[in-house]
Specification:
Layout: E1 14-20, E2 23-29, E3 33-36, E4 41-47, H1 51-59, E5 61-67, H2 73-80, E6 95-97, E7 103-105, E8 109-122, E9 126-138, H3 147-152, H4 169-175, E10 179-181, E11 187-188, E12 224-226, E13 234-236, E14 242-243, E15 279-281
Antiparallel strand pairs: 1-2, 1-5, 3-4, 4-9, 5-8, 6-7, 8-9, 10-11, 10-12, 13-14, 13-15
The structure holds flavin mononucleotide (FMN).
Length: 283
């Protein structure tokens, strides 16, 4: 089996929120799916180790906030790489109480759904909860965030508790790596692809067709090498975020092309806020 095929499945990104004994919590999930229209039902796959799992089990209700493309990476880090057992995730977040009593994250959300659990399936590491929708509202007309946009444009990672996590950090570094033609110096940038020759933006060098040649000098793929030291990616040991100099960290004012060494000392991981010292060079 080729696990990369699973990366071709499309998802959105959501904050699933619930409550237990008056306490509230939420987590990032990419596994919200509408499964029927009448009645309107959705499923979510929630890791059994997550606090949110306990809360959904206890209350039998949950909400799903549909995240906006402009959600800061820090917020995804707060809800996707930390547990409500350690921090109050709703601190400083605009949350409203829904008709079911479930908390609903309103910040950086374009819409929300609220549901009562009407069934569940044990799928090993996760429970697949089936929820019948009690309420659904649109908050604004911003673009919803897709999983692909989160990965390709925002440079985001999956937590190991996400069902779609496939030890992908290493692959991700490779997926974004620029390759240079040793004959003419042309740089193949996966983010740009080679649209003139039918190669879509987001296509890693490794996925280029066998017959793809350098668009400048027609050298074949074997004449390409990975771009040198300055394009080395660095991985956060805490959350797996990969700093890619080709992208920089525009949210933090770091321009594309800034090497890891040139990042200011005070720069922090945009996902989990770990300092530079928690990063290691990817192999
Ligand atoms: C991009 C992304 C997608 C995720 N998708 C899921 C998911 O679908 N289901 C799940 O259980 N966890 C998913 N997670 C992981 C949880 O958000 C994470 O384990 C969280 O820390 C759990 O928090 P809690 O213990 O407060 O409930 C995802 C994380 C990220 C960053």
């Amino acid at each position: 089996m080729n696990p990369a095929a699973l990366f071709k499945v499309s998802y959105g990104l959501y904050i699933i929120s619930s409550l237990k004994d008056g306490k509230t919590n939420g987590q990032i999930a990419n596994t919200v799916n509408q499964v029927t229209a009448e009645p309107a039902q959705i499923t979510i796959a929630i890791n059994k180790l997550n606090l949110t799992h306990d809360y959904i089990r206890a209350s039998g209700v949950f909400s799903a906030s549909v995240l906006s493309q402009i959600v800061p990476m820090k917020m995804i880090g707060q809800f996707g790489f930390h547990s409500g057992r350690d921090i109050d995730k709703f601190d400083g977040i605009n949350v409203k109480t829904g008709l079911t009593g479930a908390p609903i994250v309103m910040d950086y959300s374009v819409a929300y759904l609220e549901a009562r659990v009407v069934g569940e399936l044990d799928v090993g590491t996760h429970t697949l909860f089936v929820g019948e929708i009690s309420d659904a509202q649109i908050i604004n007309d911003h673009e919803p965030l897709t999983y692909a946009y989160y990965h390709q444009i925002k440079g985001g990672k999956s937590s190991k508790n996400a069902p779609s996590y496939i030890k992908e950090e290493k692959q991700a570094g490779e997926r974004h790596r620029i390759h240079q033609c040793t004959i003419c110096g042309y740089m193949y940038d996966p983010e740009k692809g080679d649209p003139d020759h039918g190669i879509e933006p987001g296509t890693p060098f490794a996925d280029l067709p066998e017959n793809w040649d350098c668009p400048i000098c027609n050298a074949d793929r074997t004449k390409f090498i990975k771009k040198g030291e300055t394009s080395e990616t660095y991985k956060c040991k805490i959350c797996g975020y990969i700093y890619d100099p080709a992208k920089g960290d525009p949210d933090a004012g770091i321009a594309a092309g800034t090497s890891f060494d040139d990042l200011p000392d005070g720069w922090k991981c945009p996902v989990c806020q770990a300092p530079k010292t928690e990063f290691e060079k990817e192999r």
